[in-house]
Design a protein that fits this description.
By secondary structure, the protein is of the alpha+beta class. Helices cover 48% and strands 14% of the residues. The chain has a domain at 91-177 and 214-262 and 330-353: 2-Layer Sandwich (Alpha-Beta Plaits), CATH 3.30.70. The longest helix is centred in the N-terminal third of the chain and has 47 residues, at 8-54.
Length: 354
């Protein structure tokens, strides 16, 4: 007490510090308690969400009826959409193996005849079906699928030509499932009875799974193009236009880069300017006729160019004094196009059953 009386100022300062330390400790403890409570609530909510996501539908009669109703409604909508899309795509005409080969050769000849007008096509352009120019498809069904595939590939090439693409550098296509020898998945075979006379493991007979038909078949065309920005925009617009592209086409992958990734060197620019200057000087020297000497009125020789005035002509272009270093290059475009074919599920299920 005596020390506090003797050092009132110092004691006051220490008292203030102690009060501030106590208040700060209370705030830290309160904040930590709030954080702990909030963290516990978050963990509980996250666990509840994970439990709900992993939980199975409770097999009550009410839930069973709701699920049946939802599935039936979904099937009706899918069937309606399938019929609409099937009606929008071009009809597939039956064709024999020999007729398909003749059609393919005619298409290839027609495409090669328009190569370079204005679009340049690969030298041996065969629309990706070169194998069938010397061999026939395995069956008429495969020939029918290939015939539709050829028509779609030609339609895409026509879009490139009509859009003003400078050149189609490469052209590849994906193989059909029938070309690879793939067939529809066969239905599950019945389980053979065991020695105990019971079928399967534990005597349970598995329920036959309902056949599920694929509704969409994707056929991929891969191109490498050389073009400008305007023709590339036209290609994308025409592929999305039903009037320009009768087949369902979706650009799955598009990669664009400049034809030249680096600008010209200073030495190359100087060389081009010097060539322009030399060409202009040589052209001017070639146009000047040999000087003819005539006698003037004063009896002295005068050049013919001075004796007769020159006729005025069009202005000649001057010497190039600048070289463009940007914006002169073309675009190199890598494009993957999915040709989407919608399949009738009823026919596919019937074909798989047969």
């Amino acid at each position: 007490m005596d020390w506090i009386r003797e050092n009132k100022t110092l004691a006051s300062i220490m008292g203030v510090f102690l009060a501030l330390a106590a208040a700060l400790g209370f705030l830290v403890f309160n904040a930590w308690s709030s954080f702990g409570a909030s963290n516990d609530r978050f963990i509980a909510a996250n666990n509840a969400l994970a439990t709900m996501k992993s939980a199975k539908l409770y097999p009550s009669p009410e839930n069973l009826e709701k699920k049946k109703s939802a599935v039936e409604d979904y099937e009706k909508k899918v069937t309606t959409l399938s019929k609409v899309l099937l009606s929008l795509q071009p009809a597939v005409e039956p064709i024999s193996e020999t007729d398909f080969q003749a059609k393919l050769k005619a298409k290839i000849a027609e495409v090669r005849s328009i190569s370079g007008k204005p679009t340049k096509l690969p030298g041996e352009s065969s629309l990706g079906f070169a194998d069938y120019t010397s061999s026939l498809p395995k069956s008429a069904a495969i020939a029918q699928e290939l015939s539709e595939y050829v028509d779609a590939a030609e339609a895409v090439v026509r879009v490139f030509i009509d859009s003003g693409v400078e050149s189609v550098d490469t052209f590849e296509r994906s193989l059909l499932a029938s070309e690879k020898g793939e067939a529809a998945a066969a239905p599950s075979a019945p389980v053979a009875p065991s020695k105990t006379g019971k079928a399967g493991v534990g005597g349970k007979v598995p329920v036959a799974a309902k056949a599920v038909a694929e509704m969409v078949e994707r056929r991929t065309l891969t191109f490498t193009l050389t073009c400008d920005q305007g023709p590339l925009q036209k290609v994308l617009n025409r592929l999305a236009s039903p009037s320009e592209m009768p087949y369902f086409a979706a650009v799955r992958l598009l990669r664009v880069e400049n034809e030249k990734n680096e600008g010209p060197l200073r030495a190359a620019v100087t060389l081009e300017l010097n060539k322009s200057k030399s060409a202009a000087v040589d052209a001017a020297a070639a146009e000047v006729p040999q000087e003819q000497v005539v006698i003037g009125t004063d009896g002295l020789p005068v050049a013919a160019a001075e004796a007769a005035p020159q006729a005025a002509g069009p202005a000649k272009p001057g010497i190039k004094d600048a070289v463009g270093v940007m914006g002169q290059e073309k675009l190199k475009v890598y494009m993957e196009i999915d040709l989407i074919k919608f399949i009738d599920p009823a026919k596919q299920v019937a074909g798989a059953a047969n």
